[in-house]
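Q: what sequence does this backbone want?
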């Protein structure tokens, strides 16, 4: 029986397990967490509006599915093996790397040492604990106003109205890369809710007590980093050719060019779209199609271009924004309801 090892049980890895749970292939999924965690909701965990339990889903059960809990420390494509921190060595016929990403600090002094993170469940819990310890009137600085920074700032505002929240945005207006309508709506939402947005910012230094933006010094009690991601270190260390974001460049069937049994999906993969949970799932589906053909000795399918459904974001629990059906911009309660619906469906069908 073919041995498929999947590293990471996030959005991409979970989809692989769902698709292969009853197939005649032995699937071993490795993750440091004993459940599938909903990374898209970590901002709410950090803000304290969702509990730990709300962001977990059990892994699927299946005849040929095995779960191994552990920390992947090395991958050896030459010997078709994977090493875990506890000394375990796992062998594979085919490997899917779906280990996700971590913060990228762009060599900004103090950023790694003095900021909190929402990139892992553990770090989001720590961030929440640190927020819980803040006194009324304290300032929270969030560096990076992409989707996760915006969702965190708005959720935290709803959760702790006693805090001053400041959001450092590199662009001329938050989320300006999405659409003018969404961008002005979100920017106004922050103005109305007294969240201080610093547009056109260029953070150059972070200390325990302040954030430097060019010549300006902004005192802070706690700083959270949401200003960039890169694949996790064990994937970066593989040394495969990567794009400017450190994501691994792939052959058309999603394996690395050097090894046709080593697939990379999700936030570790270089794809023509911004990384997202949705993209990781679509790519996982395509890799399943490729593996099924490969194992059956058939010609590999020509993969269609991945088409994304759009994106949805929240501004607290009752407001939001999104891009649907290609380019249509939505703002207000409807996209927020849609986002809740997507989350509900994601939890329900797992
Ligand atoms: C706050 C926030 C909001 C977001 N909102 C959205 C959204 O609304 N829509 C959307 O589509 N995307 C959103 N994203 C992006 C989305 O979460 C990621 O793109 C998606 O999770 C990528 O899926 P993945 O399978 O590549 O990795 P992940 O889902 O991150 O899964 C990686 C898995 O690997 C495991 N792992 C990592 N390293 C190791 C190791 N060394 N050993 C063992 N296990 C390991 C982790 O525990 C994890 O389970 C958001 C991200 C954040 C942070």
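A:
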């Amino acid at each position: 029986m073919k041995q498929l090892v999947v590293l990471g049980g996030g959005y991409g890895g979970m989809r692989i397990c769902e698709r292969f749970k009853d197939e005649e292939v032995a699937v071993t999924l490795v993750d440091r967490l004993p459940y599938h965690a909903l990374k898209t909701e970590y901002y709410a965990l950090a803000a304290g509006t969702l509990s730990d339990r709300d962001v977990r889903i059990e892994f699927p059960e299946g005849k040929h599915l095995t779960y191994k809990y552990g920390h992947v420390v090395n991958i050896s494509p030459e010997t078709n093996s994977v090493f875990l921190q506890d000394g375990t060595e796992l062998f594979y016929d085919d490997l899917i790397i779906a280990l996700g990403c971590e913060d990228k600090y762009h060599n900004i002094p103090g950023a790694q040492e003095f900021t909190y993170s929402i990139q892992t469940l553990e770090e989001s819990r720590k961030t929440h604990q640190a927020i819980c310890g803040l006194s009324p009137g304290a300032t929270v600085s969030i560096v990076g106003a992409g989707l996760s920074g915006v969702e965190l700032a708005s959720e935290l505002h709803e959760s702790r109205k006693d805090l001053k929240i400041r959001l450092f945005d590199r662009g001329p207006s938050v989320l300006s890369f999405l659409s003018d309508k969404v961008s002005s709506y979100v920017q106004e939402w922050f103005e109305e809710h007294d969240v201080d947005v610093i547009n056109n910012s260029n953070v150059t230094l972070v200390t325990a007590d302040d954030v430097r933006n060019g010549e300006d010094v902004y005192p802070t009690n706690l700083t959270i980093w949401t200003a960039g991601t890169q694949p996790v270190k064990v994937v970066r260390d593989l040394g495969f050719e990567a794009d400017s974001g450190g994501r691994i460049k792939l052959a058309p069937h999603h394996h690395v060019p050097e090894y046709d049994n080593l697939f990379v999906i999700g936030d570790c993969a270089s794809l023509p779209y911004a990384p997202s949970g949705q993209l990781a799932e679509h790519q996982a589906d395509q890799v399943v199609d490729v593996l099924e053909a490969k194992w059956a000795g058939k010609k590999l399918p020509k993969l269609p271009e991945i088409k994304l459904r759009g994106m949805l974001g929240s501004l607290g629990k009752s407001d939001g924004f999104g891009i649907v059906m290609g380019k249509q911009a939505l703002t207000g309660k409807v996209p927020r309801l849609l986002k809740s619906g997507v989350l509900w469906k994601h939890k329900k069908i797992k």
